């Protein structure tokens, strides 16, 4: 595995980071994108295998997200006050909507 750190002082989201990585033409194969403040101890091999199996069946399966709910109030305080709305297709687990918002705002969602 090759680790290529990409430093940017202007990125505020994963989307912006991906845009910079794409502009620099750094992506040649599968990759893992994590925030710089991430501390984790997990085996990514099964996640990568599941991603590759999904992509083998569906070429449009271009990314896999790992998410974990934060339950402890101190964790929420350290990470900020934002709420995250995640909508998944129950049959395929495909991401339909992902919205980060502050806890005082509301999001309208329609499901068809």
UniProtKB/TrEMBL annotation:
SUPFAM superfamilies: Nucleotide-diphospho-sugar transferases
Signal peptide start and end residues: none
Gene3D superfamilies associated with the record: Spore Coat Polysaccharide Biosynthesis Protein SpsA, Chain A (3.90.550.10)
InterPro entries: eIF2B_epsilon, Nucleotide-diphossugar_trans
Gene Ontology terms, MF aspect: guanyl-nucleotide exchange factor activity; translation initiation factor activity; translation initiation factor binding
One annotated Gene Ontology cellular component of this protein: eukaryotic translation initiation factor 2B complex
Listed name of the protein: W2 domain-containing protein
Organism whose genome encodes this protein: Haematococcus lacustris
């Amino acid at each position: 595995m090759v680790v290529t750190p990409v430093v940017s002082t202007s990125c505020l989201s994963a989307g912006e980071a991906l845009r910079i990585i794409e502009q620099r033409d750094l992506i040649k194969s599968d990759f893992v994108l994590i925030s710089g403040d991430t501390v984790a101890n997990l085996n990514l091999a099964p996640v990568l295998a599941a991603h590759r199996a999904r992509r083998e069946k569906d070429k449009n399966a271009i990314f896999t997200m790992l998410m974990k709910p934060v339950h402890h109030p101190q964790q929420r305080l350290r990470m900020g006050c934002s709420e995250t709305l995640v909508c998944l297709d129950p049959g395929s687990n495909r991401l339909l909507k992902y919205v980060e918002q502050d806890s005082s705002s509301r999001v309208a969602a329609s499901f068809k």
